[in-house]
Amino acid sequence: VSTQSTGCRNKDPPPPTDTVQKVLPALFALVQHEDSEVLTDACWALSYLTDGADDQIQMVINSGVTPYLVEHLAQSDVRVLTPAVRAVGNIVTGSATQTQTALDSGCLSYFPALLQHHKETIKKEAVWTISNITAGTKDQIQAVIDHNLIPLVVNALATADFNTQKEAAWSVSNMTANGSPDQISYLIRQGAVPGMCNLLSVRDPQIVQVLLDGINNMLETCKQDTDSLCTIIEDCGGLDKIEELQKHQNKQIYKLAFDIIAKYFSSEDYIENEDGEEQFNFQANTAAPEGGFKF
What we know:
65% helix, mainly alpha, 2 strands, single chain
């Protein structure tokens, strides 16, 4: 099995199609084996094969292995669980239809345990998998919501180690880009905003931009509750961080920060940053709206 696993590892160039088609029937049998070493190698081989273009993912799906990979998400043996999570995660990087194959196999029912796993690398892989599902359709996002996974992702955003937090940032930002207004409101009600704002001060510009995009999407979508959302952002220290980002070296980041404050926060004073460009300094009215927040 280990020879097959190694042979599937090549990504550039990927293994020839005829080679993949020849090895998949053997892997279909091996992924049902009882020996943990055999299972480990078989799952790693499948994780390598699914780490490719959609047509290669489809060959793996067509072999019928997906339900067996999903079953291994309940494995107590981390040696088997690690490649099984990675393989399922790779499948959901494919098309919406390919993602649906994994969902139809019941994969989400295993994620409450995976998102709270004692091993941080498993938790990270699980959150990464969710980030690819929230990049899908509204129905797929709703499936994540229905399995009560969003509170666990929000918790990871706030408390996990940074590598896992980065995947959680993608998860919530993808949801703001692809979800319905009701789904985005649900995300806000689950407490995503403070965790998002807290990470705006990290030194990773890609993650900062992902989070800013997510906050901007929330503000654009929740038009009727913009004032409430602005107050949440201000109360958790997010506005201070967005103001600071107007000084960021990355032009896309400081422009988006500038635009967010210009569009959504009033009572502004104009100041100039070191390059002589305008930026906003916000003086907030922090009172809660009459009747409280709807989130």
